[in-house]
Design brief:
1186 residues; mainly alpha; Rossmann fold; six-stranded parallel β-sheet; three-stranded antiparallel β-sheet; 53 helices
């Protein structure tokens, strides 16, 4: 046996040992004692956090994650602000995955730094017992990549949490020889990767697609409230809780902080005390949000305070792109909504007055090397560079490119949001607060506060009437700026802002506020510049103008100011300077106004306009019109026909005409105003005045049922408003609702639905679900769903609105009650009788308990309730009792013929009919009908009768009784009498007309036929009222139809029109068979004519439906009513009174037939196949399903 010899030891420490002649190799790793083969573990979850029992589901986010990560090699990224709950969503998803896939690996890697990622990779390697991991030079990322790529190792999910820095995954030093960590993340079909990050650009790069991005924002109000309730437990208060989550922008980490703070200090702390302290000042708010709450499910290196969490992002942005951090700092001082791009990068940052600012402030010790001075110097250098450079376009584009990159970075970190207009931005209020706190820590808060004043002043619009909407849009930012204290360099800009706001307040008629603000600004200006500075004197003159508007001449204050200004100007300015002469003119005007205000003074005209508006609200239209015409005449003379005030009064007058149903005059006046505006050089194209005129014209067209013209105008206005002010502006949203409504009226339901849905989303985001404007939109959209035969969608909308409105405003709220009634009607239309009955009962019970009659009177639900098919006698009794109380209240407070009082009376009559109290209902209707005979209208009839009688007598005397002109006057007088209801007198006159035509000629003239037709109608009306002369009326109608056919010829429009009207009268006389023949003749004849009036066809269908109903032909009646409804929708639109009436008749019949069908179903031997009711119900079902 040979001795044992060691031939060699390999470089890896393995020795080959020879024993005897046999070549037996024994391998041993002296450097690694862990190289023994290890048994592969069963897949498990490597999750460092426990499941959260307080987790709140966030819409469909978990479903979105599952969709992306469920794909082969799927990747998804949760992107959002720090503290919005990205990690909590990832934790919950990991547990859901573990529950569903027991054989899957779940790995969690904290990805904040490269070291933490590598540490996570090593932990995974140990968990899966990765072979070779203990070797000194083992490449753990590569080994892990290989293992993960091997499908034999099973499915896996890797969560990269807090991956906020691209450099961690993509940044390596070239000399190190390392690969980017991102390259070690495999795209194998057996695995998926979920990332949580604040950086959207990084998320896109890591996942490879924008489609893989799942944006996580704050919770909804409901989610946030539920989350707070879970965290606070017994300390939760619902009403105050809603205020707290709103104040915290519904951000989960901030809510958790607040709950932790309150619990730690209870009972000395509560939601109420926390809110009071939070709202006291920004300093207190920042202190509360710096509280580090206990949170087990956040990485130990991450702060549990929202302030510190966000400041990490701010520091990262500053190190990566300082200009973006500066932009964020500037934006934190604006109001958090509608931050205008124009104020963030103004077109011109330096003007000639800046030179004097630099000269006057350069030696001031306070401003030595001050940031504001540096800013002006930098602006001056940029201007000089642009003026001296031939490549000024390149410099400008370079600046714009830098701004866009800054905006993109801030958006990627979800710190700002771009409005749909693309020219405005939004921020969370808490992000603004955290940014200011961050600036304070670096002592830069004052620098950006002054920059905010400076940039905002540069972007302020010119003080002109056509810029009113732009001012309204920027007022929230202006109000913040004027409350700040400017440094000396910024005084001029701050003063300019005060001047602009003062002008706008004056423009709105708030002269007292305008005067006070300007006085405050002038005092600050005087301290720095002296009381003889040009701007100070100009401001004093403006104060006098405000005093003039407030009629304060008699106190002598304005005179004293002007005298003081004039004295300084005469002493400091050249003789006869423009400024001095202007002040002299103002002083002379002031003296004139002290003598008399005069009827043509602007204040007098304002008072007259206000009085007219009051008369308009009182429906005193004649008096309002008289005043508006006076004001318009004076304004045309003093201001000119195209002045803003003149055009405004023209629009007020057009509104008045519309209210009086004088639509032609309203349209003509609106077109005049539009022409004057277009011809004037004082206005910009498509300014506020132009929009007002166009809006008024669109309203006039809609009032006249010219829905197509109205829609075209509203769509044009919507495009302009969207471009000018963005899609979320108040004006834009109002016009958008008009567009959606116009589409609905034209029967373009799909387009209307899409527009309403888009509008609803914006209203919810802007005002919330419970706001009355959102509620109004929901009601309109629910009607569209009904028209599209999608009642379930309408029901869901109304239920959601009712829940939201009830939780925020309670049950004793006008919109809540209105929504309940709408929902009850919806239940009724969809045959859900029990739900409908319960809802009506709830509404009536609530109203019965309300003692405020004025509030009850103001509710808009009574028309709907009085016309609804209530389900029990007790409901009708409750309704009648409430309406009786309201009616008594109105009669004591308002004139008896007030429109709303008359409406309440008719609603009470409807309730009495529901109780079968027919006599009471008839008495109320008779009384109301009498009151409806408007006195002024009656006087006009009397005057018409007087004039027509005078003309008739004159022509009788001059031309004779049988002259055609005399007979025509007699016919006109008969028509006046007929309209006054004096049928007997009218009948006699018509007979005289017929005799007169007969005496003139042996042939019947068209005038004679027309008079005979009118006579037939009157005799039929008298027969119905008196229940006598039925045979006479019937014979007269038949004979007149024959004469009309002989005169005009068979198959003419005149014959068919009279046949329809004759059929109507015969139906009222209960002669249904003959009535049906005449109306059928008219319907078929008119239907075959190209120029037939749709209104006449609709009238025929309505009559045929009623006649066949009376004849017992229910199937035929329902068919006619269906055609009637479809025609009215097509011709008139869904909102037309004829369509509404047709829809109500259809719903009434459908409901009655449904009820009858239920009763028949209980009869074992009911003849279903021959029963008219059952057959008609089957037809209704078939048509509704179509």
């Amino acid at each position: 046996m040979d001795p044992v010899s060691v031939r060699d030891i390999t470089a890896d420490g393995n020795a080959r040992i020879h024993v005897g002649n046999s070549s037996v190799t024994h391998v041993h790793n002296y450097a690694d004692t862990h190289d023994q083969p290890e048994e592969a573990p069963v897949p498990f979850s490597l999750m460092p956090f426990s499941r959260d029992p307080d987790f709140i589901a966030r819409g469909d986010i978990l479903d979105q994650i599952a969709t992306h990560c469920g794909q082969a090699a799927g990747r998804a990224a949760l992107v959002g602000l720090g503290g919005v709950g990205k990690s909590q969503l990832a934790i919950e998803y990991s547990y859901q995955t573990r529950d569903e896939k027991k054989d899957a690996w779940i790995f969690w890697v904290h990805a904040g730094t490269r070291a933490r990622v590598e540490e996570g990779f090593r932990a995974i390697a140990d968990a899966v017992k990765l072979p070779g991991r203990y070797k000194p030079k083992a490449d753990i990322p590569q080994l892990l990549h290989t293992w993960l790529s091997d499908e034999r190792n099973g499915k896996w999910l890797m969560i990269l949490d807090s991956a906020d820095d691209q450099e961690v995954f993509y940044g390596v030093e070239k000399s190190s020889g390392q690969r980017p960590l991102a390259s070690y993340l495999p795209q194998s079909p057996n695995g998926a990767i979920l990332v949580t990050t604040r950086d959207q650009a990084f998320a896109v790069r890591l996942t490879g697609s924008y489609k893989s991005i799942i944006k996580v924002g704050p919770m909804t109000a409901q989610e946030a409230l539920f989350f707070l309730e879970k965290k606070l437990g017994a300390l939760f208060e619902p009403d105050l809780g809603a205020e707290l989550v709103s104040a915290l922008d519904c951000i989960p980490l901030a809510i958790n902080q607040a709950a932790s703070y309150i619990q730690a200090r209870a009972p000395r702390s509560s939601i109420k005390k926390y809110l009071a302290e939070f709202r006291e000042s920004e300093k207190k708010s920042a202190r509360l949000l710096a509280h580090d709450a206990a949170e087990l499910r956040r990485d130990g290196s991450s702060s549990n305070a929202i302030m510190k969490t966000w400041q990490i992002s701010f520091d990262h942005i500053r190190s990566k792109q300082p200009s973006a951090a500066d932009l964020l700092a500037l934006m934190s001082f604006f109001d958090n909504q509608s931050i205008p791009e124009a104020a963030l990068q103004p077109e011109e940052e330096y003007d000639s007055d800046c030179d004097s600012d630099l000269e006057s402030n350069w030696d001031t010790e306070e401003l030595a090397n001050h940031s504001s001075m540096k800013r002006l110097l930098e602006a001056k250098q940029r201007r000089d560079t642009i003026y001296s450079s031939d490549d000024d376009d390149d410099l400008s584009s370079e600046t714009e490119s830098g701004f866009e990159e800054d905006i993109a970075l801030l958006r990627d970190y979800c710190l700002i949001f771009v409005c749909e207009s693309g020219t405005k931005f939004e921020m969370h209020r808490l992000v603004q607060l955290a940014t200011k706190k961050w600036l304070a820590s670096s002592k830069r808060q004052e620098e950006f506060k002054q920059m905010f004043i400076y940039r905002l002043a540069l972007s302020a619009p010119e003080a002109k009437g056509q810029n009113e909407l732009r001012y309204r849009d920027m007022m929230s930012h202006f109000q913040i700026a004027i409350r700040l204290r400017p440094n000396k360099t910024n005084l001029r800009f701050w003063f300019h802002l005060c001047y602009c706001i003062s002008w706008y307040m004056g423009f709105l008629g708030q002269y007292d506020k305008a005067k006070n603000l300007l006085e405050k600004a002038l005092e600050a200006w005087a301290e720095r510049k002296g009381r003889e500075h040009y701007n100070y004197l100009l401001g004093q003159v403006n104060i006098v103008s405000y005093m003039a508007e407030m009629d304060k001449y008699e106190k002598g204050e304005s005179e004293a100011i002007l005298l003081r200004v004039l004295e300084i100007q005469e002493r400091t300015l050249p003789v006869n300077s423009d400024a001095t002469l202007s002040t002299m003119e103002d002083l002379a005007y002031n003296y004139r106004q002290q003598a008399t205000l005069g009827r043509e003074h602007r204040t007098t005209l304002s008072c007259m306009s206000r009085l007219s508006a009051t008369y308009f609200c009182q429906s005193r239209y004649d008096e309002a019109e008289k005043i508006d015409l006076q004001v318009l005449s004076i304004q045309k003379k003093n201001c000119g026909p195209s002045h803003y005030d003149t055009l405004f009064t023209m629009m007020e007058l057009a509104t008045l005409y519309t209210a009086q149903v004088r639509d032609d005059e309203a349209i003509e006046l609106s077109l005049q105003a539009l022409q004057l505006h277009s011809a004037s050089c004082e206005f910009e194209d498509q300014d506020q005045t132009w929009i007002r005129v166009k809006t008024q014209l669109a309203g006039c067209y809609q009032s006249q049922s010219f829905y197509d013209k109205s829609l075209v105008l509203n769509e044009e206005i919507l495009r302009i408003l969207t471009a000018k002010f963005g899609p979320d502006h108040d004006e834009t949203l109002m016009v958008m609702q008009q567009v959606a409504d116009g589409l609905k009226r034209l029967g373009r339901y799909e387009e209307s639905e899409n527009t309403f849905i888009l509008l609803l989303g914006r209203l919810k985001a802007r005002f919330g679900l419970a706001h009355h404007r959102t509620a109004c939109c929901i009601k309109q959209l629910s009607k569209v769903y009904v028209y599209r035969r999608q009642p379930s969608k309408a029901e869901v909308l109304l239920v959601e609105l009712l829940d939201s409105r009830t939780s925020t405003h309670g049950l004793r709220d006008d919109w809540t009650l209105d929504t309940m009634v709408e929902l009850a009607k919806q239940y009724q239309q969809s045959q859900q009788s029990n739900k409908s009955s319960d809802m009506f009962a709830r509404v009536l019970a609530i109203c019965t308990e309300i003692n405020d009659v004025d509030f009850l009177d103001g509710l808009g639900i009574w028309e709907s309730l009085s016309t609804a098919c209530l389900h029990s006698q007790s409901q009708f009794e409750d309704l009648a009792t409430i309406l009786q109380v309201i009616l008594t209240f109105r009669k004591a407070k308002y004139p008896p013929d007030d429109d709303f009082t008359l409406n309440r009376a008719l609603q009470l009559a409807a309730a009495k009919e529901g109780l079968a109290q027919w006599d009471d209902a008839a008495n109320i209707c008779s009384e109301t009908l009498q009151l409806c005979q408007d006195k002024r209208e009656q006087e006009q009839y009397d005057e018409a009768r007087r004039l027509q009688s005078f003309v008739l007598e004159a022509r009788k005397e001059k031309l004779g009784l049988e002259d055609p002109t005399t007979l025509s006057s007699m016919h006109d007088l008969a028509m006046v009498l007929e309209e006054q209801g004096q049928l007997a007198e009218a009948e006699e006159l018509y007979r005289q007309v017929i005799r007169g035509h007969g005496a003139r000629s042996t042939t019947r003239s068209k005038g004679s036929i027309w008079a005979r037709q009118q006579l037939a109608h009157i005799v039929a009306r008298l027969a119905i009222e008196q229940e006598a002369r039925v045979e006479e009326a019937t014979e007269l109608l038949r004979n007149t139809l024959e004469m009309t056919e002989r005169e005009y010829g068979h198959g003419t429009m005149e014959v068919y029109n009279f046949a329809a009207l004759a059929g109507w009268r015969l139906m009222e006389l209960d002669l249904f068979e003959e009535a049906a023949k005449m109306v059928q003749l008219a319907y078929e004849g008119l239907g075959a004519m190209d120029n037939a009036d749709d209104g006449e066809l609709h009238f025929c269908l309505m009559l045929l439906a009623l006649i066949r109903d009376w004849q017992g032909d229910l199937v035929g009646a329902v068919e006619m009513q269906r055609r009637c409804l479809h025609m009215s929708r097509r011709v008139n639109g869904s909102e037309h009174p004829d369509t509404i009436s047709a829809q109500e008749r259809w719903d009434g019949w459908a409901g009655w037939l449904e009820q009858q069908a239920k009763e028949h179903a209980e009869e074992a031997d009911h003849p279903f196949e021959s029963c008219q009711t059952c057959l008609a119900r089957e037809c209704v079902g078939n048509w509704e399903s179509e």
